[in-house]
Amino acid sequence: MSSAIRIYTFPLSGHGHRVELFANLIGVNHECITVDLPNGEHKKEPFLKLNPAGKIPAIEDGSVVLADSNAILVYLARKYAPDWIPADIVGEAQVQRFLSLAANEIANGPAAARLTTVFGAQLDAERAKSIAKYAFDILESHLSGRAWLVGEKPSIADVAIYTYTAHAPEGNVSLDPYPNIRAFLARVEALPGFVPMQATKVGLAA
Ligand SMILES: N[C@@H](CCC(=O)N[C@@H](CS)C(=O)NCC(=O)O)C(=O)O
């Protein structure tokens, strides 16, 4: 039997949770290793050998070392769960579109807004909330009449978008105006193997 994939993460990180969630959804053998972010473990050796950018998540799968949550989702899907990434060119490109949304507007919107409330980050909360609205308006409209972001079944696009969207209220971004998004989140949460990220009682979630 192959050894467990090591996922270096932090319990309150949505980027880390994205990877942990996917590992659980596809049932791949893995273990989560908490990196001590508050004490800067991610900025020192030996962690920097795993990710010179000094960020979690990163994984070790045998001799493969990989950082960046979306890159890890692509790797895990291609290697262990090809059903989670479309084989056709257009479907794959559509997935990439949502990975980009996750890496840009979701990271700079709801994730950044949550950083200000959960971690006291000195970021422009109003700007983050305005980017969150932009991203959620796109998602709300896209999810009209659709169960999943791409095609007829869940893909890594859904996993990439899920966590920071679900936890947006912690950053004072309400999901009340977005019924399609809320129904989408409930569908992800009903998937076999779903694991939640630890909730924090701040912002609208207080
Ligand atoms: N693009 C990266 C972003 C990862 C990221 O921002 N990680 C945060 C935790 S959510 C981190 O490690 N922050 C620590 C730091 O930047 O010092 C990914 O998708 O993995």
Which architecture of the largest domain does the CATH hierarchy give at level 2?
Answer: Up-down Bundle
Q: What's the alpha carbon Rg, rounded to whole Å?
A: 16 Å
The helicity comes to: 40-55%
| CATH fold field value of the largest domain | Glutathione S-transferase Yfyf (Class Pi), Chain A, domain 2
Approximate strand percentage: 5-15%
Number of β-strand runs: 4
Give the helix/strand class. Answer: alpha+beta
**Shape assignment:** globular
Number of domains: 2
The major β-sheet equals: 4 strands, mixed
Organism: Roseibium salinum
Pfam family, one: GST_N_2
Protein name: Glutathione S-transferase
InterPro entries: Glutathione-S-Trfase_C-like (IPR010987), Glutathione-S-Trfase_C_sf (IPR036282), Glutathione_S-Trfase (IPR040079), Glutathione_S-Trfase_N (IPR004045), GST_C (IPR004046), Thioredoxin-like_sf (IPR036249)
Walkthrough of the structure:
This protein has 206 residues and is an alpha+beta fold. The chain has two domains: 5-82, Glutaredoxin (3-Layer(aba) Sandwich); 85-205, Up-down Bundle (Glutathione S-transferase Yfyf (Class Pi), Chain A, domain 2), CATH 1.20.1050.10. It has helices at 14-26, 47-50, 69-80, 89-118, 125-142, 156-166, 179-189; strands spanning 5-9, 30-34, 58-61, 64-67. The chain has a four-stranded mixed sheet with strand order 2-1-3-4, with helices on one face. Strand 3 (58-61) and strand 4 (64-67) form a beta hairpin. The longest helix is centred in the middle third of the chain and has 30 residues, at 89-118. It is globular, with a radius of gyration of 16 Å. The model has no long low-confidence stretch (mean pLDDT 98). The structure holds glutathione.
